[in-house]
UniProtKB/TrEMBL annotation:
Gene that this sequence comes from: LOC117556097
UniProt KW Nucleotide-binding keyword: no
UniProt GO MF annotations: hydrolase activity; metal ion binding; nuclease activity
Domain DDE Tnp4: 165-321
Protein name (database record): Nuclease HARBI1 isoform X1
Cofactor(s) in the UniProt record: a divalent metal cation
GO cellular component terms attached to this protein's record: nucleus
Compartments reported by the entry: Nucleus
Provenance organism: Gymnodraco acuticeps (Antarctic dragonfish)
Pfam family, one: DDE_Tnp_4
Keywords assigned by UniProt, alphabetized: Hydrolase, Metal-binding, Nuclease, Nucleus
Family from the record: Belongs to the HARBI1 family.
Lineage: Eukaryota, Metazoa, Chordata, Craniata, Vertebrata
Record carries keyword Transcription: no
InterPro entries, sorted: HARBI1-like (IPR045249), HARBI1_dom (IPR027806)
Length: 362
């Protein structure tokens, strides 16, 4: 019986694990053939310039002008990993393509005539640079931005609203950490929680990423910067008489409105309050849908380092806001998850009074 060698090629952040079964004597020939797979030549130099403006945005999500802005901003800080001589433009376009599509790392590497390891390294660097030097594209609404957001929520039927909050699960593979089981959510897949706040125009105002998928939305919210400020200095975020809106997973606070718990005895006004709040609050669910429609890598993020995962998701949220600045209409193809109502919250009497006063308006 011939001797069989089992070779494992395991890439830390690729979407497949190859386990070829080959005869030991033939392994070197097959390995050489695998390494010499033809790649696409001159894709960035010859193919990309032929894209129409709409085709370019379809593939890379940003317009050519915004890609130029990104390169201008991060260019001075760009470090060419592995001294691979990959030009900045090629690196940025490869990273945008990777985030925007579910194409395998191998497919991206072949398309841009680089290696899988180069794709991974440049992707991490790109996301880190975006979150560091383009973070101003995510900002809390103040002044005219706050006024415009309030008008949008008022038109949706719920006045005096700053923004909406919700949690979203980003699927991942089993992470490298001390307690990977904590990242298995109630639907039994690995994920991290993205806590997002958005205005009435579906623009992210704040994001917090990286908490384990098994955590309740309220717990992740309390550990976000917004959650801490609402506890320590709420007036710095939410002006007097205004509020954030969320679903029943969140605590009721004077600055955070949630629906009445339906115990079967709600009054007609309380039911109208719930209906109007839910209609206005759905904007954050649409925002998550737009995010995953644009950056489809987030439908399953093949990364194992939690810090890299958090950086990549945050970078996509920043790029999402940049897309909205271009005034582009996007269809949502993401199904909205049902709210998680597992954890009851203690009553805050000031918040109860404030919610009842709003309810009396309906």
């Amino acid at each position: 019986m011939a001797e069989i060698a089992l070779a494992f090629f395991v890439a830390d952040e690729v979407d497949a694990i190859e386990i070829p079964h080959v005869l030991y004597g033939e392994w070197h020939d097959e390995h050489r053939l695998r390494r010499s797979v033809p790649k696409v030549q001159q894709f960035v130099e010859e193919v990309v310039p032929q894209y129409s403006p709409s085709d370019f945005k379809s593939h890379f999500r940003l317009s050519r002008g915004h890609v130029e802005d990104v390169m201008t901003t991060i260019g001075p800080f760009y470090w060419n990993r592995q001294h691979s001589k990959v030009p900045l433009q090629n690196s940025v376009l490869a990273c945008l393509w990777t985030l925007s599509n579910q194409e395998s790392y191998r497919g991206v590497a072949d398309r841009f005539n680089i290696t899988k390891s180069t794709v991974c390294l440049h992707l991490h660097e790109f996301c880190s640079l975006v979150t560091t030097y383009l973070s101003h594209h995510i900002s809390w609404p103040t002044g005219q931005a706050l006024h415009n957001s309030e008008l949008g929520f008022r038109a949706a039927g719920f006045p005096n609203t700053v923004c909406a909050v919700d949690g979203c699960h980003i699927p991942i593979v089993k992470p490298h950490c001390e307690n990977p089981v904590a990242y298995i959510n109630r639907k039994q897949f690995y994920s991290v929680v993205l806590t997002g706040f958005c205005d009435s125009k579906r623009r992210f105002c704040h994001v917090n990423v990286g908490h384990p998928g098994s955590w309740h939305d309220a717990r992740a919210f309390q550990l976000s910067a917004v959650g801490r400020l609402l506890d320590e200095d709420p007036q710095s975020l939410v002006p007097e008489g205004m509020h954030i809106i969320g679903d029943s997973a969140y605590p009721l606070l004077p600055q955070l409105m949630r629906p009445y718990r339906d115990n079967g005895h709600l009054t007609a006004r309380q039911r109208r309050f719930n209906q109007k709040l839910n209609v206005a609050r759905v904007v954050i669910e649409h925002t998550f849908g737009l995010l995953k429609t644009k950056f489809r890598r987030l439908k399953c993020l093949y990364m194992k380092n939690i810090a890299n995962i958090s950086t990549a998701v945050t970078a996509c949220c920043i790029l999402h806001n940049m897309c909205l600045e271009e005034g582009e209409a996007i269809e949502v193809d993401e199904q909205v998850e049902a709210a998680d109502n597992r954890a009851p919250h203690p009553q805050n009497q000031d918040a109860v009074l404030h919610r009842n006063q709003i309810c009396d308006l309906f």
